[in-house]
Specification:
- The structure holds two protein chains of two kinds.
- By secondary structure, chain A is an alpha/beta fold.
- Chain A has helices spanning about 5-10, 40-45, 75-95, 110-115, 145-155, 180-190, 205-210, 215-220, 235-245, 250-260, 315-325, 345-350, 350-360, 380-390, 390-400, 445-455, 480-485; strands at about 15, 25, 30, 55-60, 95-100, 125, 140-145, 155-160, 165-170, 200-205, 230, 275-280, 285-290, 295-300, 340-345, 370-375, 400, 425, 440-445.
- In chain A, strands 5-4-3-6-7 form a five-stranded parallel beta sheet, sandwiched between helices. Chain A has a five-stranded parallel beta sheet with strand order 17-16-15-18-19.
- In chain A, helix 13 crosses helix 15 (about 390-400) and helix 13 runs parallel beside helix 16.
- The longest helix of chain A has 17 residues, at about 75-95.
- Chain A is globular, with a radius of gyration of 22 Å.
- By secondary structure, chain B is of the alpha/beta class.
- Chain B has one domain: Aconitase, domain 4 (Alpha-Beta Barrel).
- In chain B, about 30% of the residues lie in helices and about 15% in strands.
- Chain B is built from eight helices and seven strands; from the N terminus they run βααβαβαβαβββααα.
- Chain B has a seven-stranded mixed beta sheet with strand order 4-3-2-1-5-6-7.
- In chain B, a hairpin with a 2-residue loop joins strand 6 and strand 7.
- The longest helix of chain B is centred in the middle third of the chain and has 13 residues, at about 115-130.
- Chain B is globular, with a radius of gyration of 20 Å.
- The chains are: A alpha/beta, B alpha/beta.
- The interface of A and B includes residues 26 and 248 of A.
- The structure holds iron/sulfur cluster.
- The site of iron/sulfur cluster has 13 residues of chain A, from helix 12.
Chain lengths: ~500, ~200
């Protein structure tokens, strides 16, 4: 029987297989950041163990770094300690580090791909759940805990239990104005936040094949929000073109050998997935979340759902709680929701293409009065490229703040936070209670929706801007009942 | 990981059930960046009371914790195990442990021994009456012994072997060093390297 992409990559990394034991898997690339590595290094130090493969290990600073005044000392003592500890550990063990202020610094999941380190058919791990991002290249990439970080540092391997395979097939063409973010939010709403548990998801189908690498990363990034171990997309010409001539991409003969191998990394025609989901791209539309987990989303044209419409009692309860926390009422059109803050950035949507998309909407426009809009590139490289293209000017002319690279408002670990009760439209990946700051309320959106929302002051898509000025946005035809089945049959 | 064969030490009788990991080590300690230095956070809230058993001078240096049922429930934080170890505990005895806590403890070389509540009661009475009474936890014989008490306990063979040999997950994997080295020798040259260029 044929094998899936995920199974092929797994098989190619088995160091040891024994009856009744998990496979011991070799790890090609280990990414580190300041939050989940300190105790791992401490463990190595205690046991007198070195880092086995410094040449497969790289670190950057992202979660705790400020996005303003980066030349000043970091005010929060906990953040400062974590960053200083990473610097000390990397110096002591010899790990390559790109600290705040370095040109290669940025969100760890933006840095790996842009350096050309993330490659098809590799195994990639990081002490961070959004490691699934790297699956966009056809890598088997997943987040690990601190004890596993130590295990990989010491042995460059991990004992791993087998996974199940799921295919999410998206055929057809995405309608105009519908992005990768809308697609993945719709997928999560469809399969649920626990629907991917135990699975590696392979995204396939014509709509996926047409996505750029940036867009594929957005899709794979959020696999974890469906509970999946990892997300993957088979490498193709788009992948090879993205990688060619990146700093750490293979060169010369190695490039040819690599591409020949990468071409074999496709799910065989006769391979069988444990579970399959099929989605028609043509039915997708701009998608936003209304609740407090990424599965609580609906088309922008819909209304806040009525918890009473949920047949499952636990779904109903969680919808009730979400509406209470979010300060929303059932039946309220999503387009009527006014926000205070707009955040464009994170490892989900902080790449150049995302910034271009947001800038294209803002070009020649101003954000609404009273709105705070933060635009935070995912890495210093992205920032430089955006500045080179003049995007920063577009943002600042529109009234947005152009910040330094980092995780920023994706999570409340650095100074960029929502105040209690504040509401945001955010291009990040988690709308959990308090994720962007204690008491903050988050609506997950695409960069395009974020920008249009900033202009109008309420959740909106670029299409709502075309009839500016004067007219109000057309309200969508959908009611609460449509929310449950956003994808058609 | 330090090997555990047999350990003899004085005990701390902790007459409380459902001690969750937040009581063992409160959340604000989780910001630390090391695996040691958690001893002062162990049972922090209770230790504000000078009469709390751990604060009694006669318990100083005790290394076996005898706790009530359902010890280690709640959040999965491994810090709870580190805190107990940093304080000097080598073994914890209880009638029932929370699963994740037990897994974490055995991974880190802290022996968690499950004994019937009657035996735990007997250990409490003995060590409360005589703080100098010693308790022996013998992993080789799978037995707990103290004056007037002999109790056998179960532990799955794999966990026991790893404790006896002092093998942590990393130690176990490193036993397959030859496999890892031979896999590395066969890796294609086009695989990515983080070495600076
Ligand atoms: S951008 Fe957000 S999701 Fe991504 S690594 Fe940073 S904190 Fe995590």
């Amino acid at each position: 029987m044929g094998r899936t992409l995920a199974e092929k990559v797994w098989d190619d990394h088995v160091v040891r297989r024994a009856e009744g034991e998990p496979d011991l898997l070799y790890i090609d690339l280990h990414l580190l950041h300041e939050v989940t590595s300190p105790q791992a290094f401490d463990g190595l130090r205690k046991a007198g163990r070195p880092v086995r493969r410094l040449d497969l290990t790289i670190a950057t600073e992202d979660h705790n770094t400020p996005t303003l005044d980066i030349d000043k000392p970091i005010a929060d003592p906990v953040s400062r300690t974590q960053l200083e500890t990473l610097r000390r550990n990397c110096a002591e063990f010899g790990v390559r580090l790109h600290p705040l202020g370095d040109v290669e610094q940025g969100v760890v999941h933006v840095v790996g791909p842009q350096l050309g380190l993330t490659q098809p058919g590799t195994t990639v791990v990081c002490g961070d759940s959004h490691t699934s991002t790297h699956g966009a290249f056809g890598a088997l990439a997943f987040g690990i805990g601190t004890s596993q970080v130590e295990h990989v540092l010491a042995t460059q391997t991990l004992p791993l239990a087998p996974f199940r395979t799921m295919a999410v097939t998206v055929d057809g063409e995405l309608p105009e104005g519908v992005t990768a973010k809308d697609l993945i939010l719709a997928v999560i709403a469809r399969i649920g936040t626990g629907g991917g548990q135990g699975y590696v998801i392979e995204y396939r189908g014509t709509a996926i094949e047409q996505l750029s690498m940036e867009a594929r990363m957005t899709v794979c990034n959020m696999s974890i929000e469906a509970g999946a171990r990892a997300g993957m997309i088979a490498p193709d010409e788009t992948t090879f073109a993205y990688l060619k001539d990146r700093p750490h991409a293979p060169q010369g003969d190695d490039w040819d050998a690599a591409v020949a191998y990468w071409r074999t990394l496709r799910t065989d025609d006769d391979a069988v997935f444990d579970h399959e989901v099929v989605i028609d791209a043509a039915e997708l539309s701009p998608f936003v979340t209304w609740g407090t987990n990424p599965g609580q989303g609906a088309p922008l044209s819909a209304a806040v759902p009525d918890p009473a419409s949920y047949p499952d009692p636990s779904d109903r309860l969680s919808a009730e709680k979400a509406l209470e926390y979010m300060g929303l009422t059932a039946g309220q059109p999503l387009r009527d929701i006014r926000v205070d803050t707009v955040f464009v950035g994170s490892c989900t949507n902080g790449r150049i293409e995302d910034l271009r998309a947001a800038a294209a909407v803002l070009e020649g426009r101003r954000i609404a009065d009273g709105i705070r809009m933060l635009v935070v590139p995912g890495s210093v490289r992205v920032s430089l490229q955006a500045v080179g293209e003049g995007l920063d000017k577009v943002f600042t002319a529109a009234g947005a703040e152009w910040r330094h690279a980092g995780c920023s408002m994706c999570l409340g670990m650095n100074p960029d936070q929502l105040a209690p009760g504040e509401r945001s439209a955010s291009t990040s990946n988690r709308n959990f209670e308090g994720r962007q700051g204690k008491g903050g309320r988050t609506h997950l959106v695409s960069p395009q929706v974020a920008a249009a929302t900033a202009v109008l002051g309420h959740l909106a898509s670029p299409a709502d801007l075309s009839d500016l000025p004067g007219q109000s946005a057309p309200s969508g035809p959908a009611g609460a009942s449509d929310v449950r089945t956003p994808l058609g049959a | 990981m330090e090997a555990f064969t047999t350990h003899t030490g004085r005990a701390v009788p902790l007459r409380r059930s459902n001690v969750d990991t937040d009581q063992i080590i409160p959340a604000h300690w989780l910001k630390k960046v090391t695996r040691d230095g958690f001893e002062d956070g162990l049972f922090e809230a209770w230790r504000k009371d000078p009469e709390f058993v751990l604060n009694r001078p006669e318990r100083r240096g005790a290394s076996v914790l005898v706790a009530g049922p359902d010890f280690g429930t709640g959040s999965s934080r491994e810090h709870a195990v580190w805190a107990l170890q940093n304080y000097g505990f080598k073994a914890v005895v209880s009638a029932r442990f929370a699963d994740i806590f037990r897994g974490n403890s055995l991974k880190n070389g802290l022996l968690t021994v499950v004994l019937p509540q009657e035996t735990v009661d007997a250990l409490w009475e003995l060590t409360e009456a005589d703080p100098t009474a010693e308790v022996t936890v013998d992993l080789v014989a799978r037995q707990v012994r103290a004056e007037g008490i002999t109790a056998d306990f179960d532990l799955d063979e794999n966990a026991r072997w790893r404790l006896l040999e002092g093998l942590d997950d990393i130690g176990l994997t490193l036993r397959h060093e030859a496999d890892i080295a031979s896999f590395e020798a066969g890796r294609p040259s086009f695989k990515p390297s983080t070495a600076r260029i």
